[in-house]
From TrEMBL:
Residue stretches making up the Terminase large subunit GpA endonuclease domain: 298-579
Name of the featured protein: Terminase
InterPro entries: GpA_ATPase, GpA_endonuclease, P-loop_NTPase, Phage_lambda_GpA-like, TFA_Chaperone
Annotated Pfam families: GpA_ATPase, GpA_nuclease
UniProt-listed Gene3D superfamilies: P-loop containing nucleotide triphosphate hydrolases (3.40.50.300)
Amino acid sequence: MSVAAEQMFQHPHGADVFYRSWRNGWSMPAPLRLSDWADEHRILPRKAAAEPGPWRTARTPFLREIMDSLSPEDPCKEVVLMAGTQVGKTEVGNNWIGYIIGHVPGPVMVVQPTLDLAKRWSKQRLSPMIEEMPILHVRIKPARSRDSGNTTLLKEFRGGVLVISGANSAASLRSMPVKFIFMDELDAYDDDLEGEGDPIDLAEARTSSFTRRKIFKTSTPTLKNASNIEREYARSDRRQYHVPCPLCGEHQVLQFEQLTEDGRYLCEHCGELFEEHHKTIMLEQGEWIVRNPESAVKGYHINSLYSPLGLGYTWLELAEQRAEAQDDKSKEKKFVTLRQCLPYEDPDGRLDVDDIQTLAGDFPMRAIPPGCLLVTCGVDVQINRFAIQLLGFGHGRVWTLDWIELPADPTDPASWNDLDEFLDQPLINSYGVQIPISMTAVDSGNWTHEVYQYVRGNPRKIIAVKGMSTGGKPVIGRASWQDISILGRVIKRGVQLWPVGTDTAKNTLLGRISKDIGRDPDKRRHTMASDLSDDYYTQLTAERSDPETGSWKKIKGRLNEAIDTMFYAYAAACHPRVRLNSMREPDWLRLEEQLEPKTDDMFQSGSQAAEPAAKVPARPIVPDRVPIVPPANVPLPTTIAPMMPDDPMLL
């Protein structure tokens, strides 16, 4: 026995002290749930809170269960919160981060939509919280040196580390394994991160080595069928907060359909109206009800009608906002997503397969209909294929002439030779005149160097493009030189990269298609070939428009290459060597004289001067089966290049 133990037992009560200490050393501490920890320790900073001071869960009682689901005692591994504004959505995540640092330490990651937003969250939310709370302040080293373990995006603390990442940075999401992840504003995440996949999946993979992991996902929804948080909530147990009517006592979910114009609420059970001052007691007596008990994921949905008195908009203000939004799509979208907390669907921004198929004309793929005087091509490069679309243009008209998916390996030069062979196939109109492809735009987003190498072979007819989803950008912008010399200087006769305003192009093309549905065929501005595949039409419906931003968002899990190649081909037509967007009536008339010459036979119209070229088989096209010469029954074509004003600066 040690000297210290002998001295302890010599004390009159030494044995009792020893055994009591031994017993306490083996006993587990009483569990402290997140909501209780927040009530005891959380201080809302003056810099970032509407009500600074000690946190009170009783102020927002509907958040108690959500927070406690994130405690270690709860067996669930994933919690989803789809919430409107002014209901404390982000503060739940902030409380959880503080709880991890101060009570259940471990490696944790916070994922914001971008690295810039990650830095802003760290400076404006996390740092003030650490400064105000002694329990956190003593656990995180001060940021006094490079090796302090405390930077904007990295916080080391006793027993763990906090990594703050951006969903637009693959490197930040690959940083390290973590036990806890807080993903904020999921609907602002990119669909595909630098060609590596969904950032949500990449982040979740960081937790795979921890059996007691916890993942917390929050966001307000955006567009119907394109919302990340809508999808995550749909696969959860889908809980809603039921509160009692102050008049009849029956529980119900607060819904905007029951809110009157004067800011009162109509009970769906007793049919009586009650005012908002009852809400505090209603929230205290509310409960979360599960709608999908088969799911192991806890999911919570709550709208702005539940905002505590004094913290959000009043019911009267919400009723007024609803009235203001009725005739304004942008305001309507904000109200639906931010106040009702529901994904928004623009009736004018949704395309249906059956509706688009009504735009099919009476000409097969690769046939040139009368009036089509210009052809361009768009190519989307995938890991195992080239998606290719040909568009034809006339005076105020557009035709989808061809759509194929050519099997390919972008790293194999033979595949690029196959693409050349496809582009060299003749397109012959009914006058026997060959219409060349004026310009081809190839997406360089994923296979950049391979595309650049291909473009170098024919820079006057093939361009490298990259989509830019920023609103208000032109269809095709100013090119930038990509090749540099050994001295690091730009080589001005090298490859050019042309930025494409994807949202602008989509608004033009898909908006035109949407408006053509139901129109008389003679008045349509966009017509499809008669034998386009069902897959092509399905892909044209893979995106939803956002009336607030003018942008388009892809539905997760859907292919949208038909859309991408369409706007690449449109961008090619707007290239300075083609200049579709600046052509006027005299330009079209000159093209028509060249490509659709009048016949001298007064009994035969020009459109009957020659039979159209035979149809090339539909997708997928195998290069060695593509006809290189026109069929025998078609006269030898007269190749006439369309008039294309040249820019001396580009020669």
